[in-house]
Amino acid sequence: MPRKIVARRSAIHGNGVFALEPIAKGERIIEYKGRRRTHAEVDAGDTGDADSGHTFLFTLNDEYVIDANHEGGVARWMNHSCKPNCEAVMEEADGDNRRRDRVFIEAIRAIKPGDELMYNYGITLDEAHTARMKKIWACRCGAKSCTGTMLQPKRKPKKG
Length: 160
Description:
- There is one protein chain.
- This protein is mainly beta.
- Helices cover 8% and strands 27% of the residues.
- Strands 1-2-10-7 form a four-stranded mixed sheet, with no helix packed on it. Strands 3-9-8 form a three-stranded antiparallel sheet, with no helix packed on it. It has a three-stranded antiparallel sheet with strand order 4-6-5.
């Protein structure tokens, strides 16, 4: 089976992941891989710094984080977008072992060869979303609907 994606330099930020072949809406593209670590291990280590503006961490569930800094795959190079063409889909493993849960990246619309694959990171931080933090976590996706930050609102905006 031919390889459908490749990681290379991105105009958005650093590296990105690009389609080599057409990808259909709903197609499961790749698994987000990395070492399973507890939230406490990540918080105590050197890969969970919210002040860096760069992360290969993916919250898997209430117990574990996928740390793609260790044993990570190509999916770790996917960039954030405010108008994504992919989404992260959680798959809970059978039984009680939450370490076995998985995350897959799936297309939410048809993707053409050459298109960069992107999803909304959905980053939430416990600390205040100050102007400094929004700058650290600046979004460079270039979408017309870009919010300017990868940080998600702490509360839902009021309607009306």
